[in-house]
Each structure stands twice: as structure tokens, then as C-alpha cells.
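Figure 6 in text form: structure in, sequence out.
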């Protein structure tokens, strides 16, 4: 498709060549579906930074454009009277990733004129500030739609606008949009009450009607989204969205889509997924839409689930799956035995000293040294906050980001400005190159280790806590060395004494995935 190719060239350049997973996608996913043929079911698995998002966006966007006219009548006849009736959904585990994916999809589709929206973003144009009484301001917001939890909620008056082709969001946010905000509030309140010991499990349904807990009213807002028109569903970072923390909401949403399209699938209890099912009794799941999964790793749990319930799904895997990108070097550095935070600071300053040395040898002018930005992964939120506070006190301005951080802004990724890869202009101005004024270090947990495409300025990833497992390590380390860029992952550990044995085990495992 010429328009899609034009956008791809504008994004990657004219000399870009397909990666292994992209070549596999082109060979298998661009084939038109013939009448009577089952929907596509594929797993795209390859190492971090190999362009998996392009591998699924291109065939999906091309098909959406090719079929938009033949589906327009069906959309008008069978759609629910709801503001949004998307034809494709992309699911991702974090709001940061959904925003980046939606932005990338918009870049790819701007020539072919498909409408892309993000459920984790305001999706509104800038307008003048409202003025007047509170009631008048309320009326204006109701006319335009509201922003709730960082997501644009379309009001009744805005129905009838051009349909959405692709919607990107987290499973829980999309469930909220299609079932109605608050659909699970009562269940969550009961769970919370039982967890804190206010209500015994046998008394939940028979609580005193006069009590505060029993008198609380629950309500569900009107659903914003219909699912009848969904032709494509992509589960990005499938190893996360099908792990115990996410799989229930992911499968629930997929089941709702199937039911809305007139082909309900069996609901498998979560407890049954961890056991080995009877091969004769196992009911396979066949969704009535194109079903794509992508992942940089295939843990045993995901492989077992797909084998049991999606045996016809085709797995496309690159040769370097479960390995680090070839351009990413590894380094092991030892704690000195003193202050670990001070050890991390010294290693950061060593990176910048190397930048200054390179600058002195290659710079033609007297401009400021362009210092690298660094990504530091910790295992616990408390460690993130402690390390960031220490570095700030030493004149190294940081961004500390955890799941509950106040700096995690709603509706945008501006809290990661300067760290994420964007198509916009590079930050300029006084103090941009000064790490005491502009953050050059991002300290976080595994929250930001999945799928995000970071700026080429991030060439170093520090792993300061022992990786929980090698899957976690691959995702964290893979934030650098992406798309052929050079990078280095620095792993901290004990050289001797207590804990040194575990450090040697980590070294051995890292060598295995770096080969």
C-alpha cells in the first residue's frame, strides 16, 4: 500500500531493511484472508528492540484501510449506539507503553487516513481556558467530553463523529470503557473489606444494612465502547498480559469481544490455567477476530497456555529469541563494600567522563559536552526513592518512577521527556546538557522495562539489584541496544564474601543470553 509505505519510509528512512521478525511477518501476515478461512492467529516472538510493533502494525493497518469501505455499512447497521466502535484493539500492560504505541500508529497511518486513539491519553486538541461560573464550565466540559484518569471520555453529544479505526489501551481501561466505569467497584470494595479484616467472608452478603459499608451505593456509568466491529486484537507484551497479574482481565476482555461478535468462547477459571488439563476434556478457544500476540520472551506458563487452548496458533520466532541484541555489551562491576549508592554515582560519572573524552577528540567547536542519559533499574519502590534522593543530593538530577509515583502524570508521557524516543524535536535551551539542572538519570522498577522504546541517548542500563529471573533481566537490559544502536548493560554484584556465589550464578546466566 503506497501511503503506508510512504509513512514507513518517513519514519525509518529509505535505507531501512526488515529485521528477522519483520520479514516473518511480511511473509505470513500480509496474505489476504479468503472466504471461509479462519481468522489469523499468530505469536510474534523476538528479542527486544527488533521492531515487533512494526511487524504487527503494518499488516493490521493495511487490512483496516483495505476493508474500511466494505465494513462501513456493517458498522452503521450493527454497531451499538455508543461513542466508540473500534475495528482494532491493541492491548499493552502500562499507560506509558499504550501512549507510545498509539503515537507510533498515528505516524504510520497519517497518509492513509485511519483514526487512532489512545485510551490512556486525553485525545483532545488544545482549547482556550474556560471561564465563567462553575455550572457553565460543567456544561462546556460535558459538551466536549471529559478527562478521567488520563483518558478521554466521549460524551453523548459527540456521537456520530468519524469512527475510530484503532484503539490502544490497557486491558483494565478497555474493560472499563466497554462495561462502564465502576463495573467492578462492588467486588473491589468487598475484597478490600475482607483484606483489611472489616468484614468476614461469610458475612459479606449479610452485612448490617445500617452499617457504613452496607449503605455505600455503587453505580456503573454508561459504557463508552462497543465491540461488535473489532476485527483485530493485538496483545503486546503477551508474556506480561497472560501472567497471573494480568491474565484474568486480558481473557475477560477477549471473551467480551467474542461474545459481542456473536461467537462466545468458554470462560476458563483462573485456577484451571495453572493445572495440566485433561487433553480430551480441554476446550480450545477460537476467537472470531484476527488474534496476534507479541513478546520478547516465551515463559513456560505462556507456552503451556497457548499449547492447551490455542493449538492452531502459529508461532513466528526470530533466531535470537531469548538473547540480548548483538549490539548490547555486558559489564559486571563489583560493590566496593561501602555505600552502594556512592558506587552507582561513581559509575555514572565514569560514563560522563568517557563522554567528555570522546567529545574532546571529535568536537570541532567549544560547545557543551553531550552527556549520555542512563536508565537504572531497582527491584523495590523504596530503593528507587532512596537512590534518586541520594543522587539528587549529589548534584545529579533524576526522575524516579514507580507505579504509584506522583510524577507519573495522567494523560501524557511528559514525565519521561528526554528519555523516551520521539519523533519530535530534541530538547534544547540553557541547562539541557547540565545533569544538575536537567534529569539525565531515570531510576525505576520493572514498570518501564516492557516494550518502551527509549531515546538513543540512553546507551547505558544499570541493573543494581539481582535480577529476579532471566526474563526480567532480558527486558530490563533490552531498553538499550535497540534497533541496531550500540549499548551497554552494567550489572552490579558482590565480588567476594556473602552473596558472591549468587553473583557468579548471575554472570553465568548473563553469558548464556549474551551469546
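Output sequence:
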Amino acid at each position: 500500500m503506497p501511503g503506508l509505505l510512504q509513512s514507513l519510509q518517513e519514519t525509518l528512512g529509505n535505507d531501512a531493511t526488515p529485521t528477522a521478525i519483520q520479514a516473518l511477518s511480511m511473509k505470513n501476515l500480509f496474505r489476504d484472508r479468503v472466504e471461509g478461512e479462519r481468522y489469523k492467529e499468530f505469536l510474534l516472538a523476538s528479542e527486544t528492540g527488533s521492531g515487533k510493533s512494526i511487524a504487527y502494525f503494518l499488516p493490521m493497518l493495511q487490512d483496516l484501510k483495505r476493508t474500511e469501505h466494505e465494513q462501513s455499512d456493517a458498522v452503521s447497521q450493527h454497531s451499538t449506539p455508543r461513542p466508540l466502535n473500534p475495528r482494532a484493539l491493541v492491548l499493552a500492560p502500562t499507560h506509558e507503553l499504550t501512549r507510545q504505541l498509539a503515537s507510533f500508529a498515528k505516524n504510520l497511518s497519517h497518509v492513509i487516513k485511519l483514526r487512532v486513539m489512545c485510551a490512556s491519553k486525553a485525545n483532545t486538541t488544545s482549547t482556550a481556558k474556560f471561564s465563567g461560573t462553575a455550572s457553565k464550565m460543567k456544561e462546556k466540559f460535558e459538551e466536549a467530553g471529559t478527562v478521567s484518569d488520563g483518558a478521554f471520555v466521549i460524551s453523548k453529544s459527540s456521537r456520530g463523529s468519524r469512527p475510530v479505526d484503532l484503539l490502544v489501551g490497557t486491558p483494565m481501561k478497555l474493560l472499563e470503557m466497554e462495561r462502564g466505569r465502576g463495573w467492578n467497584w462492588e467486588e473491589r470494595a468487598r475484597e478490600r473489606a475482607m483484606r483489611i479484616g472489616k468484614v468476614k467472608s461469610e458475612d459479606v452478603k449479610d452485612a448490617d444494612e445500617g452499617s457504613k459499608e452496607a449503605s455505600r451505593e455503587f453505580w456503573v456509568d454508561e459504557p463508552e465502547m462497543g465491540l461488535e466491529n473489532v476485527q483485530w486484537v493485538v496483545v503486546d507484551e503477551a508474556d506480561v498480559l497472560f501472567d497471573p497479574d494480568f491474565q484474568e482481565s486480558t481473557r475477560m476482555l477477549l471473551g467480551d469481544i467474542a461474545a459481542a461478535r456473536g461467537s462466545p468462547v468458554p470462560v476458563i477459571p483462573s485456577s484451571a490455567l495453572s493445572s495440566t488439563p485433561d487433553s480430551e476434556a480441554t476446550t480450545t478457544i477460537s476467537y472470531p477476530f484476527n488474534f496476534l500476540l507479541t513478546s520478547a520472551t516465551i515463559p513456560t506458563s505462556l507456552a503451556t497456555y497457548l499449547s492447551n487452548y490455542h493449538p492452531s496458533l502459529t508461532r513466528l520466532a526470530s533466531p535470537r529469541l531469548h538473547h540480548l541484541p548483538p549490539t548490547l555489551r555486558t559489564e559486571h562491576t563489583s560493590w566496593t563494600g561501602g555505600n552502594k549508592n556512592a558506587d552507582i554515582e561513581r559509575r555514572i560519572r565514569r560514563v560522563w567522563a568517557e563522554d567528555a573524552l570522546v567529545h574532546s577528540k571529535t568536537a570541532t567547536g567549544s560547545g557543551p559536552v553531550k552527556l549520555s542519559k542512563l536508565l537504572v533499574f531497582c527491584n523495590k519502590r523504596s530503593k528507587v526513592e532512596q537512590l534518586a534522593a541520594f543522587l539528587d543530593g549529589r548534584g545529579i538530577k533524576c526522575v524516579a518512577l514507580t507505579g504509584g509515583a506522583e510524577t507519573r502524570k495522567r494523560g501524557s508521557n511528559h514525565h519521561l521527556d528526554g528519555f523516551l524516543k520521539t519523533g519530535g524535536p530534541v530538547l534544547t535551551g540553557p541547562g539541557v546538557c547540565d545533569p544538575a539542572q536537567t534529569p539525565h538519570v531515570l531510576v525505576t522498577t520493572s514498570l518501564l522495562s516492557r516494550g518502551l522504546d527509549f531515546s538513543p541517548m540512553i546507551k547505558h542500563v544499570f541493573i543494581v539489584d539481582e535480577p529476579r529471573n532471566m526474563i526480567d533481566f532480558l527486558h530490563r537490559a533490552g531498553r538499550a541496544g535497540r534497533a541496531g544502536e550500540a549499548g551497554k548493560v552494567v550489572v552490579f554484584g558482590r565480588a567476594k564474601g556473602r552473596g558472591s556465589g549468587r553473583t557468579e550464578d548471575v554472570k553465568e546466566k548473563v553469558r548464556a543470553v549474551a551469546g
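Caption detail: DSSP finds 17 helices and 15 strands in the chain.
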